[in-house]
Amino acid sequence: MENLMQNPFVETAANFSVAVLSLIVFLTVFETITSYKNWEEIKSGNMAVALATGGKIFGVANIFRFSIEHNDAILTMVLWGTYGFVLLVFSYVMFEFLTPMFKVDEEIKADNRAVGLISFIISVGMSFVIGAGIL
């Protein structure tokens, strides 16, 4: 099995599979954290939710990019990816905390695209910061 993982095509497929599975799990967690149903809102054309969700997807994928780049073992890659995801969730919670004049989730659900864009930028930006710390 170890010899099989030395093949770059197999290793890439393994990393991809694990990252996609992790992304699905993490998006499910985000779905429970937010006060709206992401995919229902996106289906109905809510651009703010699409921006916020897109930022989360990009953020998680970017964190896994750094994790894959710096780790050979899949388990270590998943652990760093999970840790990065927790920090990304913390960033989202901090965004809510630092804007006491409005509720981020309510504004995004109401299709406030400005708030959705800022949410997108926070997720993307913080994923680079988080990724830079991955060893």
UniProtKB/TrEMBL annotation:
Q: Which residues form a coiled coil?
A: none
Q: Which keywords, in A-to-Z order, does the entry hold?
A: Cell membrane, Membrane, Transmembrane, Transmembrane helix
Domain of life, per UniProt, equals: Bacteria
The UniProt entry lists membrane topology as: Multi-pass membrane protein
What Pfam families does this protein's entry cite? DUF350
InterPro entries from the UniProt entry: DUF350
Q: Where in the cell is it found?
A: Cell membrane
- Protein's UniProt name: DUF350 domain-containing protein
Q: Top-down, what is the taxonomic lineage of the species of origin?
A: Bacteria, Bacillati, Bacillota, Bacilli, Bacillales
